[in-house]
Amino acid sequence: MARLFIFGLGYTAGRFAQEMRARGWHVDATGSAGNIDFSNSKSVVAAASQASHVLSSVPPSDGSDPVLDRYGDALTDKWLAYLSSTGVYGDAQGAWVDEASPTGGGRRTARAHCDARWLEAGARLLRLPGIYGPGRSALDRVQGGNAHRIDLPGQVFSRVHVDDIVSGVVAAIESDTLPGAYNLADDLPTSQNAVIEEACRLLNVAPPPLQTIEEAKLSPMARGFYAENRRVANGKAKRVLGWVPKYPTFREGLAALTVRA
């Protein structure tokens, strides 16, 4: 039986674990939903040593990578993948970025540092934009009264459905591709306002009013999200991994979530 070890069994990695178990893999993982305590070095090393494939979704901590810092020596000769962020590209003022674009100049300098370390370790870097899916989408924000439309003309984001992230990691495994960076984003970067408006249309409710950043009283994290403007290209993942997103735009993704609900 093929064995997979996951560091950080959260929302996205949990979906991936579910898929791999359905494919007959044995999966061990750290995290709140995992079966192994990250701080238990003996258990982690023992389980990781039996795994052929290792994926980390653990974010930076204090500017460094907790997985590589503590267990990097135990991951040599493993197939490695790291769920990174397209935030490493920083602000592109609405222009397209791809895997050849410079990294490290944005607000996520710690993430860019970890991204580079995993690349040096021989991992497949799966750089992710805004993630949405069941329980975490514009539909939920609209229904919860937490949706905003921000008056920022020209502001554009990329996003990806969680199930398309899962299929991207599976494609990386099945294609046995070489280490490197791959953007997993949908085909239609667009404003957050357009996504909220589509969610409202599907729910048959009026969209929230346009507001300034100040009027919306966003959290510092959300304000940082709006401070960057870029379109993320996904051509390399399609060409090299053979990845085809099931939800090529937010419209298909939100419609599927409405049906599922």
UniProtKB/TrEMBL annotation:
Keywords for the protein's UniProt record, in alphabetical order: NAD
InterPro entries: NAD(P)-bd_dom_sf
Name of the molecule in the record: SDR family NAD(P)-dependent oxidoreductase
Lineage of origin: Bacteria, Pseudomonadati, Pseudomonadota, Alphaproteobacteria, Sphingomonadales
